[in-house]
Design a protein that fits this description.
2 copies of one chain form a homodimer. Chain A is built from 13 helices and 17 strands. Chain A is an alpha/beta fold and 435 residues long. In chain A, the strands form 2 sheets. In chain A, strands 7, 8, 9, 10, 11, 12, 13, 14, 15, 16 and 17 form an 11-stranded mixed sheet that branches.
């Protein structure tokens, strides 16, 4: 092996994922080296504390508290940025790319927030930026979109991209417990962060949706230009309604492009989806993505979306791709062609909807509701009623016939103001993917 | 665009898939060229008849009846072998590779039967051999195994790899009709070949299983060294039994490697699998593959396994990969390291089984059966009975407690000889994947 070329790897951030990469790369190194015809050396890693105990053994001489020292070490060709966030992580990434190095990242917030700038630096200095681990953990969905499905234009991509939300929704459904109860348990078990907002309010999913939209369509959709809704308003009433109607509620990213008008729509929201769909049956911490291409038809990808091991699997695959490229001259890769798609306006987003609202338990309420929605052209398809936690009130679960997003929003705004409607109505989309 | 490098592509075999590749490549060419920074030219195609009408328009000057003229044309860098079979297809492939060209293929029989020889020619002459379309149609499963999941060792890979069989089994289950009836309809609809043996007897699945085993383990398992069983013996009795017990019957390839002993097992057989598993719910012409890696855990891939469009999607993705490689010097790619795994002997293949057999309808038969299987250490877990088509007979459906493949085979051979057992018993495995 002594004549083989050497590829030196540095890791910025030896936290959960960093340690996983170190561990699994050490374990699989001989195989990967034989595959590559080169030696892989874990050269240096940055940590916050030199004295903290870790799950992997790393020689103290390889550790530093300065991530920039890893990123700029002249002997290191591949820098793994596993710090997270968009401050130090960004500085380290840009510094490494400016030195012509290749950066491997699991950082969806950074790709989503600064993708164009980062990609430009990589191009300009002859390095690469890989981020397979940033979306759907161990599932090679980025490779599928960039390479495997390159012959396709994508009408619709939708999926579950956040394991924490899927875990909470799965447990709410299986155990019949309220959202806050399951959330507390998920935190205690380490399945939800102490500050859960990024996950449960949909922003983590939105970051990933933005990355998918760019890879599939060459168009950057910032998260603030998306409709992003989380799972915090869901109750057992909604879960039971779904189950009784052979539906599941999943927090989905839905990325649709009208191939005729070129309009692009990206939303993140809890959506009612038929149990006949594979994605409706992806449970617990698993992620699942359905990708429909105009040539291949529908393809589906399922796997663990997060966690040390699944993320490490994706980071290591990027490291191997990066090493293979380096060994053969590090030339540029085919890239999505940047292309600005206009945003699909709400009046051209069609679908049917579920509205759950509490009403005063008195005659004539339903007539008033129906009249209020009819003003916006929204007609009620079904009504079910259940007990409300409020006194002298009932909970109504309505579904609508097909309408559009503009009309339904106006209708719900109207309902909110209606005498007899108590509290805040909940609006959910009902997916009609391919049916 | 005039300064851009040009990549010339030839197609050997302008049949269903060849025409799909021509059509979709023509349609998506501008996008792919922008991605690659190069021009893609469909230079020449070989056909059996110059006068036959085709679904795509190809200038007559680009057509030839001689596939070798395409394979050896000095201007052509990428040759798509879409002839099928292992005679002319092999000659054309070897000829192109010997000229240092890259060959893209959808030919599972050729990869399975002559992989090592073909790969050696590609390596020797500096070309490449790509075959994404040979397994699971449009699903980029080969890329996932070669690249996306490279950090993993694979304990178990299983899946549905033949759309024809899955279509037949789905219709048998949904419509309650007998295998021969559905087969005839599938032929009439073009979902099954006139000579269906390759599909329904499991050999097509076996070819694909062999390719997967090589990619995952570096070990070539010829189909004749596998246990290969088809779906022709399945009846509505089996289908109904499955449904009543929340199982599905799927023709599966199962590739297992014991990471401790290194033993490899590859089988193709109709298997009873819990409906809780995603793969059990992959229906009609869809393929689905579950890949469990020691780092990533379980990942699942679903999509159309065959047909003009799905196969074209995979062929075009290989063409783009091949073109990108050519444009940056065509250096060697990381490859699975060849490694001979010993075959797992039947006595170390554990599982429980389903046996369906007709017996003379008289007292004491079950006791005799139970005694016969007990001799081999196989104990019966459950017995159900249904009406037999035979006079004075009943059909028994037995399941066993966990035993091993050697014991169950001996037990069934014994049952076959037992007075009171009529006709041929059917033996099916009951999957216990990850439960």
């Amino acid at each position: 092996m002594s004549d083989l070329p050497i590829v030196n790897i540095g890791i910025c951030g030896l936290g959960t994922v960093g340690q996983g990469v170190w561990k699994h790369l050490t374990r699989s190194r001989a195989t990967l080296e034989a595959r590559l015809g080169a030696r892989l050396r874990l050269k240096k890693a940055s940590v916050r504390s030199l004295t903290k105990k870790r799950g992997v053994r790393v020689a103290p001489t390889k550790l530093t508290t300065d991530p920039m020292a890893v990123a700029t070490d002249p002997s290191i060709q591949i820098v793994c940025e596993l710090i997270g966030g968009t401050t130090v992580a960004k500085d380290v990434t840009i510094a490494a790319l400016r030195l012509g190095k290749t950066v491997v990242s699991a950082n969806k917030a950074l790709v989503c927030g600064h993708g164009p700038e980062i990609f430009a630096e990589a191009r300009k200095h002859g390095g690469h930026y890989f981020f397979e681990a940033s979306v759907a953990g161990g599932i090679p969905i980025i490779k599928a979109l960039r390479e495997g499905l390159v012959a396709n234009r994508f009408d619709r991509i939708y999926g579950i991209l956040n394991g924490t939300c899927n875990y909470i929704l799965t447990r709410m459904e299986r155990e019949g417990l309220a959202y806050p109860v399951i959330l507390q348990e998920a935190k205690a078990l380490g399945y939800a962060e102490a500050d859960e907002a990024l996950d449960v309010e949909g922003w983590d999913t939105a970051h990933k949706a933005s990355i998918i939209a760019y890879l599939a369509h060459g168009s950057w959709v910032p998260t603030k230009a998306m409709n992003v809704e989380g799972i915090t308003q869901l109750t057992q009433t909604d879960i039971l309604y779904a189950r009784a109607n052979d539906l599941a509620i999943k927090l989905l990213a839905v990325i649709e492009r009208d191939l005729a008008t070129d309009e692009l729509s990206v939303i993140v929201a809890p959506i009612l989806i038929s149990r006949n769909k594979v994605i409706a049956n992806v449970n617990e911490v698993y992620n699942g993505v359905s990708v429909t291409g105009d040539v291949v038809g529908e393809t589906v990808y399922i796997g663990r979306g997060a966690g040390q091991d699944a993320t490490s699997s994706a980071v290591i695959s990027d490291i191997v791709d990066a090493a293979a490229l380096l060994l053969r001259g590090n030339a540029a890769l085919p890239e999505p062609v940047e292309h600005h798609c206009p945003r699909r306006p709400p009046e051209r987003s069609f679908g049917s909807y579920y509205i759950r609202l509490d009403v005063r338990d008195e005659p004539g309420v339903l007539a008033k509701i129906s009249a209020a929605t009819a003003k916006f052209g929204v007609s009620i398809a079904s009504v079910q009623q259940s007990a409300s936690a409020r006194a002298n009130a009932a909970t109504l679960m309505l579904t609508t016939h097909e309408t559009n997003e503009k009309a339904i929003r106006s209708a719900v705004a109207q309902l909110r103001r209606l005498a007899g409607v108590l509290g805040e109505p909940l609006l959910l989309r009902i997916a009609s993917f391919g049916e």
